[in-house]
Amino acid sequence: MNTAHYDVIVAGVGSMGSAACYHLAKRGLRTLGLERFDIPHTMGSHHGFTRIIRLAYYEHPSYVPLLRRAFTLWNQLETEFGETLLHVTGSIDASGADEVVFAASLASCIEHDIRHEVLTGDELNNRFPGYRLPSTHRAVLQPDGGFLVPEACVTAHALGAVAAGAEIHAREGIVAWSAGEDGVRVETDRGTVYTADQLVLATGAWMGKLIDGFAPLAIPERQVLGWFQPLLPDRYLPSTFPVFNLLVEEGRYYGFPVHGVPGFKIGRYHHLEEIVDPDTMDRDPNARDEAVLREVVDRYFPSASGPTVGLRACMFTNTPDEHFVIDRHPLHQNVVLASPCSGHGFKFASVVGEIIADLVERDEVDLDISLLRMSPDRFTLAG
What we know:
The chain is of the alpha+beta class. Helices cover 25% and strands 29% of the residues. It folds into two domains: 3-46 and 151-216 and 321-372, FAD/NAD(P)-binding domain; 51-148 and 219-318, D-Amino Acid Oxidase, Chain A, domain 2 (2-Layer Sandwich). The strands form three sheets. Strands 5, 6, 7, 13, 14, 15, 16, 17 and 18 form a nine-stranded mixed beta sheet that branches. β11 and β12 form a beta hairpin.
């Protein structure tokens, strides 16, 4: 059994963990990142070729300052990595005029003075013919939105972390951890023991298995994404098709232009509402998964409704209020929690990595994360 000591150990080198390793190592902290799977991998929540990033934010206006910082950090990482990570397409948030996707998105734009345009369903359809939304819908068009390339983002953060002196170990997962006044102790599935001054837990869907009492606050949910071959490909290019969030009678959906896979991509929030164990989840999409997505493509994006190109399963990890958890462990002040993100977290990974580094290094965060902290008014650990 080997033992090594670090300033900080990061468990999970996915979306948030890779960014944490990057920012911690950049600050000169001796950092170890431990990942149970490959880096990047397809077992969690960061695969699938594209992830939306948008500045207009209907989930809560307090996310907007975090997003502004996230955009800056993604651009900096892109320059350092030498590869395009953020593709700007514009973003659409559309629903009925009094429904949350449009109304709350518009409210966030007004509160934070974000440039935007309001379109009727017909105006949107005419400007972007890949859409066929109801004329009664209203849409916020925000020109800065687009998509990130998640696998490349994780790779860039991991490479940057290693270049700054971090150790990153793939295929080495945590089986046990403990924390005391003298630091933290981590045991891995390779039989190795590591110690550190602090520990960051960023294991996504596995957070409930690693933290006593946390399972009710980190509920894994099966999610399926679909890609469909456009019948009119010119309508679904990054230059002609903004990313979208759309609320219709069938549910709430999100989608992307063609990138990485020869198909228009769409997903349904909370897909079939299947609560799962991340270790035993069915990862093989089926005909029902496809039908849920195909129905909406046929109705609202008919010129994208060609043959199915691909289907992939991933996971959301939902909190009861669907906001993130970023805070110190309520019982262990040398342990930082950095997950789950309830299906809308990837775009924030760059700034979450910086926030984690702030918490570890100086226990202060310049940005307001009060919405994301644990508190008795929000929720507490079970038991």
